[in-house]
Amino acid sequence: MRAPQIIILGFDDWLAKQLRPVAVEHRWLLTDCRQLAAAKAAASERRPLLLLVQVDPHSDASPSLALLAELHRARPEIAIVVISDGKLPDDDRARWTAAAFDLGAVYVLFPPLTGPVLEDLIGGLMTALVPREMVIDLAEEGTVPS
Mean pLDDT for each 10-residue chunk of the chain (146 residues)? Predict the structure, then answer.
């Protein structure tokens, strides 16, 4: 089994900074992308994968949501978490959440968002992606029975 990977498609490096310690601890690859094409290329590798997509709900068009829908159709096994960059009223938050779920997200998060909450959620999702009986060997990207 290839090493599990967290791909972040975001506006800044806040998410990567929050998740880097837990990724290092569990030996997960962490790829921080700013471009749709880079995130799409990283997601094309066959490995356990979690995609974090940061969106701006106040923007009229969000190309990140198109990527979310495309990846969900092509690889439904990818766990996708949508993270809003802006606060919304409750009614708008519910509509955004429903739309993201329709496009394939497994979680939708809104501010305020703390590092420990993010670490717990991502840690749980990544643990579910990797079989317990397998140990990832990053040097060979193979598996060794534990």
Answer: 86 91 91 91 89 84 80 90 88 91 93 89 88 54 41
Which pLDDT score, from 0 to 100, does residue 86 have?
Answer: 82
Handedness of CA 42, 48, 31, 113 (dihedral sign): positive
Q: What is the CATH number of the domain that holds 87?
A: 3.40.50.2300
Question: Residue 75 carries which side chain, given as an amino acid letter?
Answer: R
**Residue 70, H or E segment:** helix 63-74
Domain span at residue 97 reads 5-145
Beta bridge partners of 50: 6, 79
Q: Determine how β-strand 142-145 pairs with β-strand 134-137.
A: antiparallel
Total domain count, the chain: 1
